[in-house]
Sequence to fold (391 residues):
Amino acid sequence: MESNSKRVVVGLSGGVDSSVTAFLLQQQGYEVIGLFMKNWHDDSVTISKECPWLEDSYDAMLVAEKLGIPFQTVDLSEEYKQRIVDYMFAEYERGRTPNPDVLCNREIKFDVFLKIALELGADYIATGHYCRKGEVKKDGTTYYQLLAGVDNNKDQSYFLCQLNQEQLSKTLFLIGELTKPEVRTIAKAQGLVTAEKRDSQGLCFVGKVSLPDFLQQQLAVKKGRILQVADDHPMYQTKRENTPESLAEKYTYTSADGLEVGIHNGSHFFTVGQRKGLAVGGTKEPLFVLSTDVEENIIYVGEGKAHAGLYRSALWIDQEDIHWIRRDLIPQKPMVVQARIRYRQPLAKATLHPTAKGLYLVFDKPQSAIAAGQFAAWYLDDELIGSGVIG
Fold:
């Protein structure tokens, strides 16, 4: 146990996970300060009538009171808009699929928030993420490890895939060794108001938002065609060479490849793999988005989740979009890893193929709905060592 002179600022979100994190820190003898981040307050785009950040900040304050720790709210909405919301609009406009939660951690919680905490004299910050931190020493250098949480249902290491060594060195993860039910049991035993509170849903800090409504604040409605591509289209029958370059090649569609089955309000409101919101009936199985063409404003769809157009075995990441948590593990030759391309996706065996301009991530088995703009993350055992933006 560290000496109790160590000061930790906890990101109290008003949820059960950060509440229990604050309690456990207290138990371990740290001097704990609770900080609530107000990052969004445009209620015009929330689905429900409740004001989520107000309710959350009140719950966070009640938890701080119960634990007897100092508490304050910081308004980071300007930074959040610039770094997260503007990025989201720009990516969707380009026909890509951003992940605001990953960016929110890199840019807000572990950057802006971390700096505020350090100004308050903190030695560390702590968050309610289900992951663990480890340390390894190599050639006299200490490397911090980002390890998966033991609760497979809640492991949130993926969302932290863009963190660096400096950020990890200043962060404590207290609940990574626990399961969600165990966390709730602790909260209940301590009489914390958040014990039974449901997990937040929707965009990081924005809350329950209708994404099209949110995007329509800046992206114009623009009617376009929905074209259905047959599962037995000749392009899917062409056998690809067994090279990373060939396997990573995307299917390229033209309007001659499909039959019109509906109209949409703008291809930039849709993403690869999307099933809901197409408003097209009459098919035996649901339609899935295979590709979006923002230049021609066309959405290409296929019937059924087994449609050939949804699957690819490999993806490409530009050199500038690659991020290594463990820079000592950057490979010079192919490296076998476990990888995922979205949160909660089971890890799948894959191989990293580094090149001068970037890297290919080649999976042993084809993956569904690889979307440009999303993050791929790769692991060695239960350690997340690197990630990148899918090109």
